[in-house]
Amino acid sequence: MSRGGISGPSIVEFKGMRFLITDRPTPATMPQFIKQLKNHGATDLIRVCEPSYEASLLVDEGIKVTDWPFEDGGAPPPKVVQEWFDLLIGRYAENPGCCVAIHCVAGLGRAPVLVALALMEAGMKYEEAVKFIREKRRGAINSKQLHYLEHYKPKRRLKSVSQQNGGNGSGCCMQ
């Protein structure tokens, strides 16, 4: 499932939160995609682009699918941001250490922006969050999205998640 020089999914871990950023699967890559999600322990898959495959394929494998499509190359609307944080708070409360997978078309814009917001809400500065994600997903986050992240004001909504999952403010890991 590699397009545009990205070799597979990217794991992002910070303060007990685990994310899997990937590109959108095709019908031909769906079996491999499901296997990757399961290998990483993904409990949820967030689709931030228009659906191009049946969610039931994942639901049948025990993976919850949520659709929050928004404009390609743009920033997420406030409703999507709030629902994203609500999902993360709930998921990490009920299953600490679980993995939340997220994809857009190429895994370079919409999906990384939402992960960057989560990192920022857990205490990372926007510059660090962008650098952290770009180390694994070269070319991630365009200038319009970067501007949005630069002006985003974190409210520490994920502070309790990072504390309950053993985050001590210093640990981060990308694999």
Descriptive account of the structure:
There is one protein chain. The chain is globular. It is of the alpha/beta class and 175 residues long. The longest helix has 17 residues. Helix 4 crosses helix 5. The N terminus and C terminus are likely disordered. The protein contains seven helices and six strands; from the N terminus they run ββαβαβαβααααβ. Strands 4-3-5-2-1-6 form a six-stranded mixed β-sheet, sandwiched between helices. Strand 1 and strand 2 form a beta hairpin.
Radius of gyration: 15 Å
The number of helical segments is 7
Q: Shape from CA axes?
A: globular
* Element-by-element helix/strand order: EEHEHEHEHHHHE
Proportion of beta-strand residues: 15-25%
Instruction: Give the biggest sheet.
Output: 6 strands, mixed
User: Distance N terminus to C terminus?
Assistant: 17 Å
Structural class: alpha/beta
As residue ranges, the low-confidence spans are 1-5, 166-175
**On the 0-100 scale, what is the average pLDDT?**
85
Q: Give the beta-strand count.
A: 6
Order of strands in the sheet with most strands: 4-3-5-2-1-6
DSSP helix fraction = 25-40%
